[in-house]
Amino acid sequence: MHALIIDDSRTMRIILNRILTGLGFSTAEAGNGQEALDAIAHGPVPDLCLIDWNMPVMDGYTFVTRVRANAEHRNITLMMVTTESSHGHLVKALAAGAHEYVIKPFTAEAITEKLELLGLVRNGALA
Amino acid sequence: MHPTTHPAIHVAPGAGDVMAMVNEVWSTFVDAAPLFPTSPIEADRSRSAQVRVTGAWSGMVTLEVSEVAARAVTRHMLAMSEITPEDVTDAIGELVNMIGGNVKSLMPEPSILSLPMVAAGHIAVPSEATEVTRLDLLWHDEPLILRIHSLENDTRSTP
């Protein structure tokens, strides 16, 4: 199962990469929404995207709307991982098509729990 | 009919709330949380990182750390012994981004969080800004200062 980590912070990409590879995912990284769209266009298409909200060039919300506008990508699971913790942001992201929402700072357990809820992980490994 | 102006509600984040956020960020991504020093510490602003909040509440959240602390924090966050100056800049920026995002959540909405700015030395704040919250902390004997400035007039603390 392939995951794309989208965050302008290399630090955060490294932390998330460590969590996901520990669960068995193969991973790729993008520094903003546009880079992520390019990565998806050139393949491989990820099964899961972890998406920061505030990024230069293209933010995470715009990325979610762009992915959801493409029917070919309806199977990609989208999970926001962001410092934006307001109810308004959460509602907006979910309405745009994000499946889950994690607020920074997060623990590996919190990410794993969300992935279990999404059916991608079971008992600490890929489902 | 006379026009009526309604002054906006302007608040400052309480020091206790901010300290709780710092503790959560540190304990999640670094290690033991910073402590309040038992005696005055000498500020070391070798590295500064700042995010700005603009909207119903406007202000700045600034983290100032020594070079030793900045490098140690980065090694903890990345779980790497060999790090580059770019790693340090990114890690410190992400720390202030997380703290700033949580500060923003305490303030009146809507508002926008900027991308983090990181610099060697001190980052200036606008002359009209008022320091509303300041935490002088120690982490592994290294100074760490978190300052919150408001661009509003009213600086009441949140309950």
UniProtKB/TrEMBL annotation, chain A:
Domain Response regulatory: 2-119
GO biological process, one term: phosphorelay signal transduction system
Entry keyword Phosphoprotein: yes
Name assigned to this protein: Two-component system chemotaxis response regulator CheY
Database matches in Pfam families: Response_reg
UniProt keyword list: Phosphoprotein
In-chain residues carrying the UniProt-annotated modification 4-aspartylphosphate: D52
InterPro entries per the UniProt record, alphabetical: CheY-like_superfamily, Sig_transdc_resp-reg_receiver, ST_Response_Regulator
UniProt entry tagged with the keyword Heme: no
TrEMBL record, chain B:
InterPro entries: CheC-like_sf, CheX-like_dom
Alphabetized Pfam families for the sequence: CheX
Keyword Electron transport among UniProt keywords: no
Keyword Manganese in record: no
Keywords tagged on the record: Chemotaxis
Record protein name field: Chemotaxis protein CheX
GO process annotations (BP): chemotaxis
Top-level taxon of the source organism: Bacteria
UniProt domain Chemotaxis phosphatase CheX-like: residue ranges: 48-121
SUPFAM superfamilies: CheC-like
